[in-house]
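Quarterly update from the structural biology core.
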Amino acid sequence: MLCRRLSPDEAHQLVAQLPSMLQQGLDQCVDGPDRKVTIAAIEGELGKVLGLDAKGARAALQAVCKAVAASVTAGEIAEVRGQLPADMRELFPLAS
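Predicted structure, tokenized:
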């Protein structure tokens, strides 16, 4: 869903930097930007798919975003943040 929130070019750049095992599943999710994708929407889907309550879904989303940020360059995270609304930018803190 995060890839769908980004422009196709940015989503492709993000996916290209992820481990190759993840790339195949995400190459179909680069048809954004879908402005209906929000933190609440992502958490709702995570909760439904993984059987998590709201707190667990938030923790899962934060863990995924942390793993993504650790897998790609700081410059790519800055580009991703630039395309996200303010509340979603907080999922990817700037590197210190």
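Residues 82 and 89 are 8 Å apart (CA to CA).
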